[in-house]
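Exam prep: given the inputs below (a chain plus guanosine-5'-diphosphate), describe the expected output before reading on.
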Amino acid sequence: MNTSALARQLKVTTNELLEKLPELGFDIGAKAIKVNDHLVPKIIDAWKKAERKKAFKESQASITEVRAKDKVTVAEQKEITIGDTIVVKDMAEVMKIPVARLMGELMKNGVMVSLNEKVDFDTATIIAEDLGFKVIKSKQAEEEETSNKEKLTQLLSTRQSSDIKAPVVVVMGHVDHGKTKLLDAIRSTDVVASEAGGITQHIGAYQVVAHDRAITFLDTPGHEAFKAMRSRGGQVADIAILVVAADDGLQPQTLESIAVIQKENLPFIIAINKIDKPGADIDRLKQQLVELNLTPEDWGGKVICQPISALKKEGISELLDLILLVADMENFKADISGPAVGTIIESHLDPGEGPVATVLVQAGTLNIGDMIVVGQVPGKIKMLKNWKGQNQTAVGPATPVKILGLRQLPQIGEILEVIVDKKTYNNKIKNIDNNFRPAGINNSQNNNKTEEGEEGATNLRLIIKSDVLGSAEAVEESLKKISVTGAKIQVVKKGLGLINEADVLNAAAQQALLIGFHIKENKNIVSLAQEKGVTVLYFDIIYKLLEDIEKRLITIKAKKTVHKIIGKMQVLAIFKSQKNSMIVGGKIVEGMIIKKCGVKVLKNGEMEAVGKITELQSGKQAANEVVAGNEAGIEYQGDPIIAVGDTLEFFEESYE
Ligand code: GDP
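Solution:
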């Protein structure tokens, strides 16, 4: 082929082409007239790549410009500031919408509230964002996130980042634009994983290999991705993929994502998704991008766009190539040697394994046996597992790994540090604030009370989910009033919204009862709850809840205490039956009854209820004890289920 023809094809002059070719590794001579045909496709490919690199550099520079202009766009979105909780009425006021409308929106999401009740930050954010608001966390709430970020920056600043690391990618965009589908499509490109028969584990991040190079994806689909981006993405991601559906164009969460990307100064690629759909209009979307001063590169701008169909898995390998290209440009590096520093990207309590967390190592190498501190939580690495479920002995930067060995559940976004020196580690443990409670078990934990409580008391552990924090608090207050000697209620967690899988797992791990108050039943967790042996109860009326819990306490106590049987009575007559008490008469057939002893109600030999004797009569006289062979009348407190013919077994109790 003639060099002039090739130059025309590449839209440059022949001189420009000849000048540039050596830079791209093709030395065909400064005055060459012809170029070998087999080199032509290679030259074209290298040329395009180089152009992209150049465009990318320029696009990153232009982001700063765009940010200034784009502030307008973001500012046009209405912003509201919310702390950890907000009263519904106040929320409507700051949003300048009628309270009834807000309550309607909350209701649609299964949150039943009155205007004076509080909703928490997460609930408020979901509702407000659905209504097109941008939610900002109040300063105090944000401080924690910022301090983690500062800590990380400080820890990483002392490290020599000289080793190439895999890029860490976060996927963002408007709801339903296909983030989850894209993450699934990318995950399934990893042929090696499927060939090896590895069972993919959802640990909050995964890695794929493209052109022999690893790419790490934060796997936080749906609305979560957005929140996650705020608390962890900004700390750990190197590149953002902004997914925009070609049939829907730019939407509020797309704009918000752009604002976050720019604030974090993240290199980004736009994945124009759903191009398979009949309504897909790539040009219209590009036009919208132009209006935001984010002109796509093929329209003469600098923003990298890749049309894809996550559904049909089209354009995925091109997208991976672009990620690698950006990684080459940015040259992401980390320090592989030395003790590990990382960020927690996921954590949960596993019934079998205890506290489990996923950490993304950001510097150094994390090894089995390492002593670590995550925020306030100490531990020693007992197990490292990658997203394919394979055991690892050591992992380096940009690798997500599931860890076991933490003493408590750490919070997402917290920094993991390896402590090399045993003395320092022991001091760290000593210095840990005695009052600290594990994350995930919020302040409602009643631990002081329980621990100071009666010796040998058995705890009934509860996790309460409710429509609003106010009602969970009311339930907790009322529960405090129930008193059953030898058994104690311990509210280990309170939360808002529907009971989800995490709640079930948490309840299984903590051996707690799950209570839903004023919330809709979630049918999706029924089989998991059965599998894990977790009891889930729903109530709408507080006294029914209290009654049920009291009964359970009594039964627990009955199971856990040692009962010395002192006598038996055959029930002959029922004189009175009330809600929680009965007056019955019968004949003592064995032993004796003493006033104020315990009683078990037996039907056909099976225990059906446990109660106590509050009054005892022999003939018409009050008595302190009545022995076998005599008849007696008793006032019984407990479930009013005694019937003629039942056997009552009297006992005195001591605790195990
Ligand atoms: P997310 O909320 O951004 O995570 O969106 P999802 O990944 O859950 O996708 C929302 C819906 O769009 C689902 O029904 C997907 O099957 C569908 N979807 C995602 N990607 C594509 C695509 O490329 N083409 C088509 N036709 N549908 C898609």
